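Hi there, hope your week has been kind to you so far. It would help a lot if you went through both lines with me. No rush at all, and the record is pasted right below:

***
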Amino acid sequence: MPRLRANDIEQDKIARFERIKKAITALEKQQKQILKQGDLAPEGAWVARYQVSQNRKKYWYYKLQVPTPSLPCATSSKLSKYKHLGKAGTQEHIDAVMSVFRRSVWDEIQRIIHTLDDCLLDISSGSEQEEEEAQD
């Protein structure tokens, strides 16, 4: 296989750079679509199921939970780790589940964009091809 000339190598770099930029643009467009669908849950949030016993009966409820207090309390001006959502299938429950889903998709897209940004740096800085250090 013949060696590539300097011009061919530069053209290849430009083409790869442009493909990555195009992919990043598509991912950012996806993020905008996600935001149009509704709110994102706070980072690290999840929907938890819990049980309450009352008058010898057991009831299941749901809550939005976060690792650090960031949710407004219904009864005070403090922040809480929990937001009561009620029973399964209530509008608040479904909204919370979907906001957690949107957050997870958003975060995954953001991780991919960061990875592709690193690829752009490799291409533009020339660090994708480095000389190995001689070993003794």
Summary: The chain has one domain: 6-124. The chain has two helices and five strands.
